[in-house]
Design goal:
The chain is mainly α and 179 residues long. It contains eight helices and no strands. The chain has helices at 2-15, 21-37, 51-65, 74-90, 96-108, 112-132, 135-147, 152-178. Helix 2 (21-37) runs antiparallel to helix 8 (152-178). The radius of gyration is 18 Å and the shape is globular.
Length: 179
């Protein structure tokens, strides 16, 4: 969680044009609430689950490319791809940040070179992992996902609770500052 917190601070610092002491306080407060004090992470910090390391590796992948997203050098893209691969290796559903980053380079920048530098290391390592781990691994990660589909009712109820509670958690540092 500490790694994810530091990556989140780096991401916000990279996208904030001017950085003041108040900005630093708000970013640190938001990061502490996100990674250590909110319902998003809650008791997962004290259990052995793949969610927190996967989220932290995803944040590190984004932190690698966000500071120079339009002119990211080749090594930043490869490092980001390796972080996204690490996130995927913890939990296979954590590929959305990689997909979003690839979509950005495809749709917004139309930069196939950067897209390939971001996607190919992940693709090679993911295919190698699935191929080398054997049939039981493939069955557990690919085939069983078809058996246990999405429960839309459960997802909608969780989304409704999150839509109500999460904005209040994110607004808490601002409320404290305004008091």
């Amino acid at each position: 969680a500490l790694i994810g917190f530091l990556a989140q601070v780096k991401i916000v610092r990279a996208i904030t044009p001017r950085w003041t002491r108040r900005d630093g306080f708000v970013v640190i407060a938001m990061g502490l609430i996100t990674w250590f004090g909110g319902s998003l992470v809650s008791w997962w910090l004290v259990t052995i689950r793949p969610d927190i390391p996967a989220a932290a590796m995803t944040a590190c992948g984004l932190a690698a490319i966000v500071p120079e997203v339009r002119r990211a050098r080749w090594w930043r893209l490869v490092v980001a791809s390796l972080f996204f691969t690490a996130a995927w290796s913890f939990k296979q559903s954590f590929i959305w940040a990689l997909m979003g980053s690839c979509l950005y380079y495809l749709a917004m920048d139309r930069d196939l070179r950067r897209l390939m530098l971001l996607a190919l290391p992940f693709a090679v390592l993911a295919v190698a992992t699935v191929a080398l781990m054997g049939p039981q691994y493939r069955e557990n990660t690919i085939e069983l996902q078809k058996v246990f589909g999405l429960n839309l009712h459960d997802g909608n109820s969780r989304l409704a609770v999150g839509a109500i509670l999460i904005p209040w958690f994110l607004a808490w540092p601002a409320i404290v500052l305004l008091m």
